[in-house]
Fold this sequence. Notes:
There is one protein chain. 33% of the residues lie in helices and 15% in strands. By secondary structure, the protein is of the alpha+beta class. The chain has a 5-stranded antiparallel beta sheet with strand order 2-3-1-4-5, with helices on one face. Strand 4 and strand 5 (130-131) form a beta hairpin. It is globular and about 50 Å long.
Amino acid sequence: MSYDLMVFEKAKAPTTRKEFMAWYEKQTEWSEEHDYQTISVASPTLQKWFMEMIKKFPPMNGEYAPNLDPLDENEAEDLERHTVDYSIGHDMIYAAFSWSVAEEAYELMRSLAQKHGVGFFDVSADEGDIILPDGTVI
């Protein structure tokens, strides 16, 4: 099991919890016609968020996945702990982290969401935070 968070385009998501959760369920049916690993399918704002996020939490798959071969054992182990399984949609990016980096992931993902003007959802928490870029909690 992973620690899951999501960022989303604020203009595309509903602004009430009930409607948001229905929208979230629809998004996670993964029914868009692309591979969910390619960042170019996402909105420009989500792309900017992603490019900054992967500096600390690189993707497991796709064109930005790191090469672990040249690293020593300790470096490779740390990098593996920080790799993330991103699922990239047009209006959201879902990120599955290792539980060992949950607090670090939450803080960075939330702060970068605010910086880049996208919404943030703590998927793994019961009644998880849904925070709009202006700080409004829904």
